[in-house]
Amino acid sequence: MGRPPCCDKSTVKRGLWTPEEDAKLLAYTATHGSGNWTSVPKKAGLKRCGKSCRLRWTNYLRPNLKHDGFTPEEDEKIIALHATIGSRWSVIAKKLPGRTDNDVKNYWNTKLSKKLYQSGIDPITHRPVSHVMETIRGLQNADVHCGNLSSVPASTFSPIFPQPQLGRAHGEASCSSTEKAASEFKWTDFLMESLLSSDGDTFATGSDNNAAVVDHGLDPSAGFMCDAMGVPCGGDSSSSSPFVDAILEQERELVSKFYQFLGDHSDLS
DNA sequence: AAATCGGGCAACCGCGCGCAG
DNA sequence: CCTGCGCGCGGTTGCCCGATT
């Protein structure tokens, strides 16, 4: 059984907000504060979903939001943070006063990623495009297997586009120490260090454990970079379900074909 | 002037997490 | 421990509007 919808979509208004609706929501939050969004539409006299009210308030009506263009300093900060933690827009937005995650996400998707690419930097890996293409060609020639991939420099893989996680599908519990040794250098580490030293802060992620993990350049939610190559090391890596194993196997094949496709079309770059 | 295209952005959707009962 | 609910998040969609043909 799926989760029931938060509101009746047939009776709820959708689409752009009118100035009158904004005024009602502002008036309500000014006197009652934000929170308990499910009851806000009723109390504020709005025919909107509570979720829609929350979104409108956090992305547009909230006090101290900046509505002007991004500065070059903000650009630099976004790029550096994206290189370090990937597309965790809420974390990035917290580092930019007056900006929302939606702002940052839209700005990245429409402007910054293109700007980076035009300047010869791959917006996914944050490495020179030529290096990325070289790596893909290397992968095409390599037998796609966890052990063989250890020969590929660890810095090749992006946190948000890690290499195929084959060990997980085949129940390989962990990578060997030699595999780890081959990837001692973590380019994200020095990015993180430079960021942290610049403002002396850490990335709050909602729990102490998570914060500690992020401090070491790891992503507690996505599980990327258990070692520097994006291959999970340690822990239970196999699924107990044949169904899940089949899906993982299928995913593995797709990733392999994808890399092969990129290699076949490397002349397009 | 009209039609089409494409960029930018606001809003929506679905999922995961945390918490209270 | 389980379940339901509220909230926050990232990804995606769709509308608006200026540029181009």
Task: Please explain how this structure is put together.
With 269 residues, this protein is an all-alpha fold. The chain folds into 3 domains: 19-61, Orthogonal Bundle (Arc Repressor Mutant, subunit A); 72-118, Homeodomain-like (Arc Repressor Mutant, subunit A), CATH 1.10.10.60; 129-268, no CATH class. 52% of the residues lie in helices and 0% in strands. The chain contains 13 helices and no strands. It has helices at 19-32, 40-44, 50-61, 72-85, 89-94, 101-118, 129-141, 146-149, 166-170, 177-181, 187-199, 208-215, 242-264. The radius of gyration is 22 Å and the shape is elongated. The model is unreliable at 144-244 (pLDDT under 50). The chain binds a DNA duplex (21 and 21 nucleotides) through residues 3-4, 6, 14-17, 35-38, 49-52, 54-56, 58-60, 87-90, 101-103, 105-107, 109-111, 206, 221.
Q: Briefly, what is this?
A:
It is built from 13 helices and no strands.
Gross geometry? elongated
Number of strands: 0
**Largest sheet: number of strands, sense, barrel closure:** none
How are helices and strands ordered from N to C? HHHHHHHHHHHHH
* Overall mean pLDDT: 62
Low-confidence stretches: 144-244
Class of secondary structure makeup: mainly alpha
